[in-house]
Amino acid sequence: MATTSAGILLYRLTTDGGVSVLVAHMGGPYWASKDEDAWSIVKGEFEAASEAALDAAKREFGEELGLEPPAADYAELGTFAYSSGKRVTVFVADGTGFDTDGATFGEFEMEWPPRSGRTASFPEVDRVEWVALARARDLIVKGQRPALDRLEELMGDLRAETAR
């Protein structure tokens, strides 16, 4: 069965009328020297039979960043499938005013170096940043780019309604 994940994509409007999003750089030795295609929406796995996707997204946000997700109105942006078959349900909310100071990243353990028999601990995320939506497309892993496209589409619709 395909892995299911849920995540939160916070956005905020910039002073120049653009949009920035909160993305997290994946932790661990594999991602340490990578930048492009090494960032992610803050997300994690869950069991759909026992937990609602939004509840899982909020839980994972807290676990990965050590910060409570903002009290905001969350909307389901969609469920997006990776080429591997993994599916991620993304929720979006206005993150204006959300401060990442004080973030403490959750950790995972893995054998490192490979085939050494030793276990090492690494952060799930090693940094989190607000970046312009266009820049996020270069940074975020390929399977999550459709979520950025969907957000951009919705923001365009919102701007069109506001202009009327």
From TrEMBL:
Annotated GO MF terms: bis(5'-nucleosyl)-tetraphosphatase (asymmetrical) activity
Residue stretches making up the Nudix hydrolase domain: 1-153
InterPro entries registered for this protein in UniProt: NUDIX_hydrolase-like_dom_sf, NUDIX_hydrolase_dom, Nudix_hydrolase_domain
One GO-annotated biological process of the protein: AMP biosynthetic process
The protein, known as: NUDIX domain-containing protein
